[in-house]
Amino acid sequence: MNKDSRENILFFAWAVSILAMFGSLYFSEIRKYEPCVLCWYQRILMYPLALQLGIATVKKDYRFTLYSAWMSAIGMMVSAYHYSLQKLPFMAEAAPACGRVPCTGQYINWLGFITIPFLALMAFTLIFICSMVILKKNKGELA
Asked: What does the alpha-carbon distance between residue 57 and residue 64 come to, in Å, rounded to a whole number?
């Protein structure tokens, strides 16, 4: 793996974060789906990733992937919890009230399993994998 592949991987992670950011804005601003509390937490983690990965891509600063790995890992946990509230009956029954919009609500349910938290989970997972690949490559260069 050469430096060009790291650049491509970093660009891919940034593109995923931009797609996730604009996707969430599409659902809330165009489709008028009001985000629940957990959706807001996922946005709080994704939006800075879009900005920071963009800056890292332009500057070719691969050290930032340490931060993107942590932020995306936390985002994966929040998204997985949110998705389990939607899809696992025993989790939905025990779900606390989380504001005006219930976190168990499903605005979309494509193919019976693709919901908005699932899309966020996939985005965070892709960013995490990209970050870990770059971190592994960076560690190999330091040795």
From this structure: 10
Q: Identify the CA nearest to 71 among candidates 56, 87, 91.
A: 56
Residues in the chain: 143
Overall pTM surpassing 0.85 (yes/no): yes
Q: What are 51-65's pLDDT values in tens digits?
A: 999 999 999 999 999
Measured in degrees and rounded to the nearest 5, phi and psi for residue 31 equal -80, -10
The enclosing domain of 98 has a CATH number of: 1.20.1550.10
Which two tokens mark 114? Answer: 């693709």
By the 8 A CB rule, do 59 and 125 touch?
A: no
Determine contact, residues 106/86, Cβ cutoff 8 Å: yes
- Domain range holding 18? 3-142
Number of domains in the chain: 1
Phi and psi based region of residue 114 (left: phi greater than 0; alpha: psi -120 to 50; beta: remaining): beta
Query: DSSP letters of 23-77?
Result: HHHIIIIIS-PPP-HHHHHHHHHHHHHHHHHHHHHHHT-GGGHHHHHHHHHHHHH
